[in-house]
Write a structure and sequence with these properties.
By secondary structure, this protein is an alpha+beta fold. A 5-stranded antiparallel beta sheet has the order 1-2-9-12-13. Strands 7-6-3-8 form a 4-stranded antiparallel beta sheet, with no helix packed on it. The longest helix has 7 residues. The two termini are 16 Å apart.
């Protein structure tokens, strides 16, 4: 059985920063949200670490995981959208990365093909991993699960942040949409 807990709640670190998108889901294991602050603000600058491919998708730089933030267009407050070194199935149970690489991921501003720098941000996480069936017996009596890094996290948080794919789509002020992240994480 798929991870319906993740589908219902989405990533923990985005809680309170997204509103549900009333779009028709293409997959039953899909969570969708639009980035929006509590006061209704939905215009953000994007900052990222990684390389851009020919379609302007943000990709890993060599073997160093991508990192993407949204910055409030008025206050400058930054919100983490994805850190491929922390989020997703692989980062939680399979892969570790050298600290010196993770601490050296300078961010760059994202400009779309029209040179725009302010966007609405739409997020999609896919939850195909059957966490309960695969890892339920490894959960401690206090409800925590040990990640590959040795960190102990509540199992419900693992199920929410342990998605197997993640996508980010942006829309500029002219209505032009661009897919900027399509990340397989399992």
């Amino acid at each position: 059985m798929m991870n319906m807990y993740g589908v219902e709640h989405g990533p923990v670190y985005l809680q309170g920063l997204t509103k549900s998108v009333a779009a028709e889901k293409t997959h039953e294991v899909e969570w969708q949200g639009k980035l929006q602050t509590g006061d209704g603000h939905d215009q953000f600058h994007i900052f990222y670490y990684g390389d851009l491919d020919e379609d302007d998708l943000i990709m890993w730089h060599d073997m160093t995981p991508l990192l993407v933030y949204a910055e409030h267009a008025v206050t400058g407050e930054r919100y983490l959208l994805i850190d491929a070194a922390k989020h997703g199935y692989d980062a939680m149970v399979c892969e570790t990365y050298p600290e010196e690489e993770l601490n050296n991921r300078p961010l760059r501003p994202y400009l779309d093909v029209e040179g725009e720098d302010t966007f609405e941000v739409f997020l999609t996480a896919y939850y195909n991993v059957a966490w309960d069936e695969e890892f339920g017996e490894d959960v401690e009596p206090d409800g925590t699960y040990e990640l590959i890094t040795g960190e102990r996290v509540h199992f419900n948080e693992v199920k929410r942040n342990g998605y197997d794919a993640f996508a980010i789509r942006i829309r500029n002020r002219k209505g032009v949409e661009t897919e900027i992240v399509q990340e397989e994480l399992a």
